[in-house]
């Protein structure tokens, strides 16, 4: 996983980490493994920008809104991401974007696992994910719902 992603975690994410050493969690490949397990569970290809985008936005929406995506919402998200990524990008850029998205999604998945027993800690994670997605992508996860058309304003 990208050294740059690990180095910039605390600068780019507002989350007060429960993971003891999140930089090492990313560098060691543990974040990628967490992301890959989730992708496999969703039946999505690994190491792919579209899959990484679906995972990042799906995990962010679930955590920010404190509710799981339905299968229909997941399918809508896949369709929307596929349509948005039709434009070709440099393969190196696509790889770096995928790595970054997988690392962040993997971190959030592990943070969620570590915080499961505490409603207060889950709220803190939810709020941090909401802030960070808004900062990284300009998307307000709480102001949007997922419908058959993908993300739509509530």
Concise structural overview:
The protein is mainly α. The protein contains 8 helices and 2 strands; from the N terminus they run ααααααααββ.
What does this structure look like?
With 154 residues, the protein is mostly helical. Strand 1 and strand 2 form a beta hairpin. Strands 1-2 form a two-stranded antiparallel sheet. It has eight helices and two strands, in the order ααααααααββ. The termini are far apart. The protein has one domain. Helix 5 runs parallel beside helix 7.
Main beta sheet: 2 strands, antiparallel
As a percent range, the share of strand residues is 5-15%
Gyration radius (Cα, Å) is 15 Å
Q: State the low-pLDDT regions, or none.
A: none
Q: Share of helix among residues?
A: 55-70%
Order of helices and strands: HHHHHHHHEE
Shape: globular
* Count of helical regions: 8
Question: Domains counted in the coordinates: how many?
Answer: 1
- Counted beta strands: 2
The overall average pLDDT, rounded, is 90
Q: Strands across the major sheet, in which order?
A: 1-2
Structural category is: mainly alpha
For the record, give the distance between the C-alpha atoms at the N and C termini, rounded to a whole number. Answer: 36 Å
């Amino acid at each position: 996983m990208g050294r740059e992603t690990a180095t910039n975690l605390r600068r780019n994410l507002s989350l007060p980490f429960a993971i003891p050493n999140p930089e090492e969690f990313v560098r060691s490949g543990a974040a990628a493994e967490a992301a890959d397990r989730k992708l496999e569970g969703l039946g999505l290809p690994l190491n792919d920008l579209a899959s990484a985008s679906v995972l990042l936005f799906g995990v962010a929406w679930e955590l920010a809104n404190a509710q799981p995506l339905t299968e229909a919402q997941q399918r809508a998200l896949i369709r929307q991401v596929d349509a948005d990524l039709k434009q070709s990008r440099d393969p190196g850029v696509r790889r770096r974007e995928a790595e970054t998205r997988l690392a962040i999604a993997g971190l959030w998945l592990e943070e969620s696992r570590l915080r499961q027993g505490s409603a207060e800690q889950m709220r803190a994670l939810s709020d941090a994910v909401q802030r960070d997605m808004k900062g990284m992508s300009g998307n307000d996860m709480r102001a949007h719902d997922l419908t058959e058309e993908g993300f739509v304003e509530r």
